[in-house]
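Thread: quick sanity check before group meeting

JM: Hey all, I'm pulling together slides for Thursday and realized we never actually wrote out the predicted structure for the chain we discussed last week. Dropping the sequence here so it's in one place. If anyone has concerns about the input, flag it before I start.
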Amino acid sequence: MASEKEPTVIKKYANRRLYHTGTSSYVTLEDLAGLVRGGEDFVVYDAKSGEDITRSVLAQIIFDEEAKDGQNLLPIAFLRQLIRFYGDSMQALVPRYLEFSMENFAQEQSKFREQMSKAFGSPAFGGTAFGAPALDAIQAQTRANMQIFTEAFRMFNPFTAAAAAKAKQDAASEPAKADDLGDLKRELTEMRERLDKLSRSK
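JM (edit): ok, ran it. Output follows.
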């Protein structure tokens, strides 16, 4: 089985120039944005220190895109809420949830494109307004994402698993420990099956 393609290496120099090692040429942030849109994966390293600065470069691309007229994707309310999560006890969960939601949104994008096309193209909405069907579809997807993510977190949360195991151990007698372990494994299997069904039913 062929291995996955290695990400392209981009080097950033002190003069802020970005060097594409694959094409042996200098590129701009706009060029890197084009690579992302084209599905090409890359990593950015500081040419002097060797530090991986991919995150900050991607953030800069988003900042530049947001600064363009008509390109705004991130609502102000979302940005404010995101800032509030920094330092919050839920901070560790936010990246995975956002990644999880975007992955699901990307997988369902053909359905959303169809919904949005109908909404935008409908004479009832003047061909421009964002129609209720598209909005309902997005809200339904968000609710489904949250349900799946919550189920997954509950299943894989080490504290929840430990508490459940301890409760079973305390309630059971010594000879019944093997049976308890079997019950726990069956419950875990059932939860995984429910999670798979939820994913497929979206």
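AS: nice. The chain has eight helices and four strands. Residues 19 and 25 are 6 Å apart (CA to CA).
JM: adding both to the slides.
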